Amino acid sequence: MTLAVEARDLWKTYAGGMHAVKGINFRIEPGELVVLVGGSGCGKTTTLRMVAGLERISDGQVLVGDRVVNDVHPSKRGVSLVFQNFALYPHKSAFKNIAFPLESAGVSRDEIRRRVNEVAEMLELGAHLDKTPDGLSGGQQQRVSLGRAIVRDPDVLLLDEPLSNLDARLRVVMRSELKRIQRRVGSTAIYVTHDQVEAMTMGDRIVVMDAGQIAQMGTPAQVYLTPATLYVAQTIGSPAMNLFTGRASVAADKLSLSGQGWAINISGDGARALIARLPGADMSITAGIRPEDLDLGGVGAALGMGPCVTAEPLGSETLYNIDVSGVTCRVLRRETSVSMPEGQTAPVHLRSGARLHLFGADGLRIGGTVLRDSIGHVGWAPDESFV
Ligand SMILES: Nc1ncnc2c1ncn2[C@@H]1O[C@H](COP(=O)(O)OP(=O)(O)OP(=O)(O)O)[C@@H](O)[C@H]1O
């Protein structure tokens, strides 16, 4: 059976009064894979452990299906956990490791054999069932650990940084494999990671946590295109979004944004939509623009200029770091032949289709606008995609 998981005003206060989780609410739909992401210490693991029943809930409720499980023993919640360090029994074979939860539950030998073989086939471990963990590769060990978690058909699969001990290549392979297996098993899954690429690629939805609270919950596209706070803007996306601090001032139906060494003038529908959301005619703001929305030169709106500090070839793209009056501005260009030498002064422009994100002094999103650049004419349209 596939069940929803809910947190209702969930709190965790550790001894000494440290609030690790501060009244969070979420609902994860049956069969959905939701990723909890955020910086170190933001409360991801604590949240997961409260759902698992490994950490006492200080206040609020956890529901699996329509049952409040606060006082239900971990083994009776229908949840299975996969940790980052695999935690396999070193002297047991892969078969015995996967079979362990079934043996503990008193399942018959024939049934154990049938279930383990079924899971091993799904995880492509059939040829390795007799080996002990030291004879298995990292990816195979992780699959055994996953096999142990899914062999009892859990309603809910909880994964705490399950790929962090694997090398870069294997992580990429296991990302899609894990998602495929979760889909096939049909469990509702909560996946904890600090890796935003994992969050973006694996999550049906993402929960971005910040200091024990939920900064934003949404699809990867929603979180990427309309970050709700500065923290989300900085956490999701690689290379990270450029943030320029300065002031916004309104004159008639035009909006001028400017700070040290940079300025953007916004007019048209995009300006009107933003002005309607601004609390005043002159205020401190932060403007955010993703590196792929910027270019060196070009016909789009100019932002500022400065010397190219470093050029980092990333393969199909090059990341340029331009020093705009002391602020490093990241520009991502998809080019192989034309390159900007380090030290040369470069003008930074917004590309056609660039999204400008505006945040208030409180760090909350005010709104966004999209640059529509048709030959010789720069226009701004409201960015209402997900707002
Ligand atoms: N047993 C504990 N006693 C006291 N404080 C704790 C305990 N466990 C965690 N914390 C604190 O609670 C906060 C949240 O910790 P948690 O492990 O949930 O964060 P996290 O987001 O998973 O971080 P990381 O990515 O570093 O694992 C941190 O400040 C941490 O120091």
Automatic annotation (TrEMBL):
Q: Which Pfam family, just one, is annotated for this protein?
A: OB_MalK
Where in this chain does the record put each ABC transporter domain? 5-236
GO MF term (any one):
ATP binding
The protein's matches in SMART domains, at most eight in alphabetical order, are given as: AAA (SM00382)
The yes or no answer to whether the keyword Transcription regulation is present is no
- Which InterPro entries does the UniProt record give? AAA+_ATPase, ABC_transporter-like_ATP-bd, ABC_transporter-like_CS, ABC_transpr_MalK-like, ABC_transpr_MalK/UgpC-like, Mo/tungstate-bd_C_term_dom, NA-bd_OB-fold, OB_MalK-like
Q: Name the UniProt key words of this record, in alphabetical order.
A: ATP-binding, Nucleotide-binding, Transport
Name the family the entry cites. Belongs to the ABC transporter superfamily.
**Which PANTHER family does this chain map to?**
MALTODEXTRIN IMPORT ATP-BINDING PROTEIN MSMX (PTHR43875), OSMOPROTECTIVE COMPOUNDS UPTAKE ATP-BINDING PROTEIN GGTA (PTHR43875:SF1)
Protein known as? ABC transporter ATP-binding protein
